[in-house]
Structure formats: structure tokens, C-alpha cells
Amino acid sequence: MAAVTAPGRVVEQAPLVIQAQGSFAVGGTVVRQPGTFDPARPVMPQGQTLHGDHARVFYQVPQNRRQLPLVMWHGFGQFGKTWETTADGREGYQTIFLRRGFPVYLVDQPRRAGAGRSTVAGSVSATPDDQRWFNMFRLGRWPEFFAGVQFSRDAEALNQYFRQMVPDTGPFDPQVATQAVSALFDKIGPGVLVTHSHSGGLGWTVAMMNPQVRGVVAYEPGSGFVFPSGEAPPAMPSAAGPLEAVEVAKAEFDKLTRVPIVVFYGDNIPAQPSPNPGEDNWRVRLAMARLWVEAINRHGGDATLVHLPQIGIRGNTHFPFSDLNNVQIADLMSDFLARKNLD
Amino acid sequence: MAAVTAPGRVVEQAPLVIQAQGSFAVGGTVVRQPGTFDPARPVMPQGQTLHGDHARVFYQVPQNRRQLPLVMWHGFGQFGKTWETTADGREGYQTIFLRRGFPVYLVDQPRRAGAGRSTVAGSVSATPDDQRWFNMFRLGRWPEFFAGVQFSRDAEALNQYFRQMVPDTGPFDPQVATQAVSALFDKIGPGVLVTHSHSGGLGWTVAMMNPQVRGVVAYEPGSGFVFPSGEAPPAMPSAAGPLEAVEVAKAEFDKLTRVPIVVFYGDNIPAQPSPNPGEDNWRVRLAMARLWVEAINRHGGDATLVHLPQIGIRGNTHFPFSDLNNVQIADLMSDFLARKNLD
């Protein structure tokens, strides 16, 4: 269907046939200010409400759709854009999986981007930090890219990549975030949750909250690994600080053993401690993810960890789904969905 | 193509055939912090950059496209959502005009929603103000809707409507906003600019900056009416404060006389001064728009003002393009584009 002539150049794509598309807010709350609204003084809050803390969702349903939709949830500092056009201008997961017949729902979590209406005031910093993310997202060690990294060397690609960051418009609150995404599953019914980084741990929570989550694909989950009470491993020290496991009631944990789960990690994660927090961070996260997958399976679950270099796929960053080889990465996800009867 | 059974219920829509879709950042600037980046202390800003102040754009190009794309720019407190699914769940301009063969580009202006990365720090208030917007956007006089208003009485519609507001993530700066949207026209070439409310005046600026703007459709422009030096009318007092005209050099103004322009206003705009700022605001804006259209035409331009009630179309709010009769409103826009050879 896609005729790829060279990385970053896609020509003669078949058209997308979309049965329905649109957007909506889901979840959230309403704050009410006591008093009486005075229409002559509309800037006074008395008697007014604020609808906020919802998620914003943009969805597309292809013709001849598969049954289960994919709900794609971005990570820290990101929004639905994560899954759209890649930094170097190729199709992202939004469109790749539409082509593969899946309804695709892109989430902006509460207090982020199109879901910016927060019930708690916030402040937005303008502190330069692009280089922090260049290292943390494992494009390389600024200003050098990793040899063989699956990221375009075109300057415009890095420009686009930096510009897809967005700030929080209010304090991050895991309960607010997970309730809104759970409300999305209440609205749309059964589906597969696709998470990235920060939403990885939040995604386990949503999967425990809502039985409509029928499978989870987690790209590089970064925190929130849940273990049954008494079974959490000790915190793992790293140059980025200690990574703590999270204990939950066994009955809650067991809910995660009832859905197929796959976890992917990319390349350039050091095996030994590194003084670079942007890399050492991922060393302990990958190590914790291995313990977590073992715990899920020990309790009768169905979790798989795929460390991409171990299957011969090299150079992936923290964003495998938008890397230069993202069609290959998507094929791995398609295989998982097929094997687990989620497609 | 669309079989509408009742307001808010659309069934058996033909599928959309999309040749290409995607998203990108455009325009913006880069801030550089002096010093040297220390990878061991990545939260320190020294030596780091911040890419910000761009616009975020989501676009779709239908199969068998018309030549000129439509660039849709939201108003105050809004983002690209303005043009997506309506509050009561029907298709908005994004999808309506895709069906009519136009490439559609939805903008989030700099420091808003998906373009939230600002080079200047900001603060986000959580002050309740839904009722302010209910009145200002002329749904009615809270808590009553106007009789016959083109807005669903379904409670969920109002819930969705309130939730499509988003805050600024940095100080609003008209130069930042207009430069980013002008950069979009530099990137995509000739097109038609569709503005709403706050982007109305900004849109005149972009049309003066960039000859790629080949026509302008303005829904309820709220400020920034430009007149040649020496020809600005006096400020118009209102219950919402005075509305000031803006003077520009005659040579700049003349650029607006070279493109077809249509301006639409909805219903429930009082003809006489009202103590309600949410209504009186629009009285002077409509009056100023009339003087502005006269000035454009006096100088050889081609501008039309359509006050919808005067052509028998009743009940429109500040958002005619998403009101219950938005297909009828879209037909008026299609007629304009056809008459001016912009389709």
C-alpha cells in the first residue's frame, strides 16, 4: 500500500477511507463558585462554573473497521501529536493503524494541549530544556546523535521534534488523568490501550479500573510499575534518582493478569550504571519492567517484554512508533494484536 | 450525501476519502540560554535551547481536491477544535469542507493548545467563567437560552461547549500569532483564510503580510478593524468598554482591497445600547465592521458584510459554523468561494 522510496519520502499512498471522524471531551469535573452571577460584571467568578479536567479526544474510524479501537495515550510533555506525523514528515501510528483497519482514538490527557482547561491554576515555565529531552529521549548525547539512531539527521526533523512538546496547564494529577481515560473507555466500550512513557504506569491503573481495556501495548513505560502488596522489589537507584515500585492490593494487581500486555523498549539503554541521567534512567526502568513482566506472568498473566535490540532491531529512541523504522515497529504491534485476537 | 433525520442526528454519511493527512509545527522562534549544557544536570538551562511560539497545524487533503486550501483559525480561548465536531456531535467545518473537496488546515495559534510551547512564561487561571462565555458567545442570557437560538438544548452539548475552551500558555502576542500563521501560508502557498472572532483582526494583518492569502471569510470578527491613516472612525463606547479602530499605512490597507472578503454576523445583536456587556460588545463590533466594509469598498476592494438575520437566517450564536444550521451557513461560504473563483 505504501511505496517507500527512501526514509522520509513516501509516495503514492493509497487514499484513506474514513467512515467517521471527530472529537469530543470526556470525563472531567465541574467547579462551582458560590454566589450569584452578575451579567453586568461577567469577569467576576461569583455564581459561575468551570468545566475542566476532561481529556480531549480526536478519533477516526476507517471503512470496514476492525472491532476493537486503539486508544493512544501520549507521555510526559507530549499530546496527541505523539502519534501523528513523525518529526521527519512520515505517517505516524494514527494513520498507519487507520490503514490497517483500526479505529484510532488520540488522547490529550487532562491539563494538556487541547484538554487545557484545568480546575486548578497552573504556571508555565519557559526554561530552555531541549537538550535535556534530546538526551532523555535517547536521540544521542547532545549534540551528537547515537550512531545508527533511527532518527532523521535533517535539521527540520529535530525542529519539529522539539516543537511537539507542550506544557501542563495545571498540576499533574494521576487520579484526574486516569479517571478521564477510564471515562473514555466507558464511552467507547472495549478497546486496546496504547501507552508511551509516563502514560505507561497510568495505563496499568486504567486497565485495573476499567474492564473495557482488553489489551495494553506499552512503549517504554517509565514509572508506576505496580506489584501485589509485599512483592514490590526495592527501589532501584540511578543517576536520575531512585525508581520506586508501587504496591497495590493483590485483587487489583490480578486484574492486569486478565489482559494481554506487551512492553517495548528501544536501543541505547546502558546495561551498567551510567553517570548520564538521560540514559541511566532507562537502565533501571527496563530492569524494573523485566521484574514487572515476571510478576504478571508468575500470577497467571500474559505479559511480554520486547527489548528491540535483543530481536535484532537497532537504533530505536524513546519514541519507537515515530522512529525511521516505525512501520517495522508497527508490524510488531500488529503481530501482537493478531496473536492475542485483539484485531 | 448527508441524510439528516433530526438536528444532531446524522446517519449514513458517505465515507471521506482522504489523500493525505498529518500535522506539523510552523513558524516560531528559538531561545538560547548562554552557557554550556551539562548532561549530568539536565534540568539546568545553561546552554540549552527552547523551540517555541510556533503554530500547530493539523491538515487533511481529500481525494480530487480543489486547488485552494482553507486555513481555519480559531478565536479567543479556543483552538482547532472550534472547527471539528460540534458541541452537539455533528460534523463541523473541518469535515463539511473536506466533503466539499477542500484541503483543510486547522490552526492552533502560538501559545495555545497543541502549540503550547511558549518562549515567555505564563500563568493559567482556574477562575470560573463559563457563564461569561455563555452570554458573550450569545447562547442567551444565563441561564436562559435565547428563543430560537441555533444551539442544542441537550445538556451534554453545553458540557462539550464549555470544555472546548483552552487557556493561553504564555502572554498573547499579536506579532507572534500573525507571524506563525503567515509562515503557514509561506509553507502551503495560496489559500483562503477562515477566521473567527479574535482571529478576525489578526487575519486582516496576515492578509496584509502575505499575498498567499487569496480570500478571507471572517465569522464575527471582534477587534483589529484596520483603516487607512486618517480615516479611522472614533472609538465606539459600549458596556464592554470602547472599541477602537486601528490605523495602518494606506499602502498596507490597500492590500486588503485586492482579495475578496466576506464577514458574517449572527443573531441577537442588539441595535440599541444594552447594559449587558456580552451583547453590547457585538453591537459596536457589528457597527465597526459595517464602517470597515464600506472603507474597503470605497478604496476599490471587494468586501461583503452578511448580517444573517437580515437575510432571514435567525438564531445564530457567535459560532455560526458550529450552530445547528451550520450546513446552511457552510452553503453561504461555499457560494462566496464559488462566486469569487476561490473554489
How does this structure look, described?
The structure is a homodimer of 343-residue chains. The first copy, chain A, has 343 residues and is an alpha/beta fold. Chain A has a single domain (3-39, 56-118, 164-313, 320-339), classed as Rossmann fold (3-Layer(aba) Sandwich). Chain A has helices at 93-99, 130-136, 155-163, 174-188, 198-209, 250-255, 277-298, 326-339, and strands at residues 3-6, 9-11, 16-26, 29-32, 49-52, 55-62, 70-73, 104-108, 122-124, 140-141, 144-145, 191-196, 213-219, 226-228, 246-248, 260-265, 302-307. The first copy, chain A, has an 8-stranded mixed β-sheet with strand order 3-6-8-7-12-13-16-17, with helices on both faces. In chain A, helix 5 links the parallel strand 12 (191-196) and strand 13 (213-219). The radius of gyration of chain A is 20 Å and the shape is globular. Chain A starts with a strand and ends with a helix. The interface between A and B is large, with 81 and 81 residues. Strand 3 (16-26) of chain A pairs antiparallel with strand 3 of chain B. Chains A, B: Keywords: Hydrolase. Chains A, B: This is Alpha/beta fold hydrolase. Chains A, B: InterPro entries: AB_hydrolase_fold, Carboxylesterase_BioH. Chains A, B: GO terms for molecular function: hydrolase activity.
